[in-house]
Design a protein that fits this description.
single chain, 380 residues, alpha/beta, TIM Barrel, six-stranded parallel beta sheet, 14 strands, 39% helix, 14% strand
Length: 380
């Protein structure tokens, strides 16, 4: 089986924002890596990332090195700095081979936190630099693919970034589950969705500290990593469906990544319940409460263009497959993040409660279809 890892990661490093890629107008204030107590941080607008303590805390893996040496947390990983930072592609391929991963689709790490700056033009420059960097080092690579990042605080720029990512060879576009304190059905985002649909790129809604209103409720990374980090994915799913985005763009492929699959039953049932109540009961009393979405909840799932990632140990994965079908679940390794399971694909293959056909679809067929990987790209 040719396993496609639908959600791997790269750890950004100073090369990501080097002169070769970064907008000259912002080079004097480029993100820089600073060291402290054996750890490393990004200095962005005189703020440190990650912010592991205090209100609005987050826990990012990047940066993994400082002055050529791995940080404390990076030194505990099996992955080398060269693999994590993609400074040596053969190092990443080596560990992929060890875990029998044929193709890996790469997502960012730094951009899983929001906001990185209060200056939208500066964040746009950061996104552009990241996209150019990955396009440069991975252009034409048969086993390492990448998705682009966009700045939803600058919608005209985000629309341009979508088309630029398409031109540069990205296989998808990543966003978080909210656009800051805006929901994903906010009307201001429509030009972005039009660009995604026009470019025929899939949209990935990834976990991350997306919503400051939620992030700032927490001052400890443990509960923040459960609620503030994961819940925006569920919020994004609800927004895209209830807000009519899936009606406006019925052919857009969307995946919801790294929150496991155990939430799918809960959200679909709650949406169904509220859709029925608002449509049949409440709207008879207050007209403007009629749901915006045009179809019953499960009709969108049955169309086949909504995908979900699963953790290989998800106890209820067989029931999720029964609910949404085995053609819409994908596997992501989360390599090289610290909480990942090594040899995760093999763990899924060893499960006795899944059919061989379902395993084949989860590990190969579904991600190939979602990302539009052709047969020639699948020979590994």
């Amino acid at each position: 089986m040719r396993v496609i890892d639908a959600d791997g990661h790269v750890e950004e490093n100073p090369t990501t924002f080097s002169d070769k890629y970064f907008d000259p107008a912002f080079r004097s204030q480029r993100p820089e890596v600073v060291g402290m107590d054996g750890l490393a941080y990004w200095m962005i607008d005189e703020q440190l990332y990650p912010r592991r303590v205090g209100r609005g805390c987050n826990n990012l893996g990047t940066p993994v090195s400082y002055q050529g040496k791995p940080t404390k947390h990076a030194a505990r990983k099996v992955d080398s700095v060269e693999s994590m930072e993609l400074s040596d592609l053969s190092a990443r391929i080596k560990i992929m081979d060890e875990e029998n991963l044929s193709i890996q689709v790469l997502y960012p790490t730094l951009f899983l936190a929001y906001p990185l700056s209060c200056n939208p033009t500066y964040v746009t420059a950061m996104c552009n630099s990241y996209n150019r960097w990955l396009a440069d080092i991975l252009s034409g690579h048969e086993r390492l693919k990448w998705v682009g990042v966009v700045n939803l605080d600058d919608i005209p720029a985000a629309a341009k970034q979508v088309h630029e990512c398409k031109r540069l060879g990205a296989v998808g576009i990543m966003i978080l589950g909210t656009a800051g304190d805006k929901l994903l059905d906010d009307p201001s985002l429509l030009p972005f969705y039009e660009a995604v649909a026009g470019a025929n790129l899939p949209l990935a809604v990834h976990v991350g500290w997306a919503c400051p209103a939620i992030n700032n409720l927490y001052s400890h990374i443990y509960p923040s990593g459960v609620i503030a980090f994961l819940m925006p994915v569920l919020m994004g799913f609800v927004s895209l469906m209830s807000g009519g985005i899936l009606d406006r763009f019925p052919d857009m492929r969307v995946v919801f990544l790294e929150a496991g699959s155990l939430w799918v039953h809960f959200i679909l049932e709650r949406l169904h319940h509220r859709f029925q109540h608002s449509g049949k009961n409440l709207s008879q009393v207050v007209t403007r409460t009629t749901p915006i979405q045009a179809l019953p909840t499960m009709d969108y799932v049955r169309k086949g263009n909504l995908y979900f990632s699963a953790e290989v140990e998800d106890a209820l994965l067989p029931q999720v497959l029964d609910l949404v079908g085995d053609g819409q679940i994908m596997f992501g390794s989360d390599m090289p993040h610290g909480d990942r399971e090594r040899f995760a694909a093999e763990m899924l293959q060893d499960r006795e409660d899944l059919s061989e056909s379902a395993k084949q679809k989860i590990l190969e067929t579904n991600p190939a279809r979602f990302y539009g990987l052709s047969g020639s790209q699948m020979r590994y």
